[in-house]
Input
Amino acid sequence: MEDNPYFEQRLEKANRLRQMGQEPYASGLKVSHQAAQVLADYQSYSKEELEEKAITVTVAGRMMFVRSFGKAAFVKVQDPSGRVQLYIKKGEVPEEDFNIYQCLEVGDFIWASGKLFRTKTDELSILVQSLKVGTKALRSLPEKFHGLTDKEQRYRQRYVDLIVNPEVRDVFIKRSQIIQKVREFFLERSFLEVETPMMQPIPGGAKAKPFVTHHNALDRDFYLRIAPELYLKRLVVGGLEKVFEINRNFRNEGISIQHNPEFTMLEFYWAYATYEELMDLTEDLIRTLAKEVSGSTQLSYQGSDLDFGHAFRRLSLKDSLIEIAGLKKEEVEEAKSLVKAASRLNFKFKDEKAPLGILQTELFEEKVEAQLIQPTFITQYPTEVSPLSRRHQNDPSVTDRFELFIYGREIANGFNELSDPVDQKERFLKQVEEREAGDEEAMYFDEDFIRALEYGLPPTAGEGIGIDRLVMLLTDQPSIRDVILFPHRRS
Output
């Protein structure tokens, strides 16, 4: 937003209020009703009933509209619940209060008390009998008919966006409701909510590049959490068999409509459960959220109709390459054949000599993911790309792991946890080799986590669900920046 040309004018009016003995930045102004409560309680009253009962209400909020007639004005005041109309008329309020009104403009906070009545157009309004200034705004709001429409400006000045775009406020109110209902869902199923460190001596729980910070008193570097997984599994080792955390994670990665450097995740771990049970639980969670937040299991997202009412499709990663990408079974099972098949699909691998599982996953991400519009669980991910997952009992080349895709986007990732400390140590060492070879997202070796596994992790299944992407779906928002109050952006 450009420098406000009316700043000095507004500052002069603030000083004028002080000269009148009115503090332009007041405190302790009490109200009797919010705007929505006034309308809910008295909208059914007729003009005659309001005159007979002489109902007095007191409201406060931001002035969003003024229509002045010189010695009278209609004013729309907005509070968190909505808007209500005031009628300010010289002679109906003390002269001192009318002088206050003459120093006010759209954007200012005011406090008003008066009697309810109906205008000639039958609109329920408040005939103001007492008026005070709450806060004098020094900057003007965007032009009333066009609002704040520039996307980058909206993200940069979210506080203005929330004032002038009620649909934006609705999104973040829904976001809060979604998180609350997620919390209730797990608490009702006897999960314990816990908190794990955001600053970690060794980053772990995902393949991602971490942010680094330094603690002066300890004189050592710490890493901002990329995932809480390894700490949550330590708690399961300690006997907390059903735990969850709604957590903030930080990953030093690119920015896109699906990615923000800090984001919110739900992670939960369930001893003696299997990843099949997690898929059932996830279906139940998303279906419940859709019903409670949107009122239906049939949703529209960016023009696509999504059905959460039926059982979600379940398909192995290899089978998805066959059924959706159009490969033959024998092409999927052998690296050289897969490279040739990819060439037929006009796709070239980053490294054609990479292990088969990495090639399968890379081709899946390029040729299958975007086509998974309806809710679909992709299962049995290759071991090479699943360093924390338990190997499949009958096929050690894949793991007991799934990812949930909706509208071509990953929403959840879950698996049977690797509880064998020897196997986990070998996989960590493999990750260290990849890091030393230049992979900045490869995991570090976490000796204490291996020690915890050596004390015994019961058979456990765990999952992470992206809260931001889930909110995007349930509120029909195209970008992750539309569901994060203060998203990171390029300057």
User: Anything to note?
Assistant: Residues 172 and 210 are 28 Å apart (CA to CA). The chain has two domains: 7-141, 164-324+368-482.
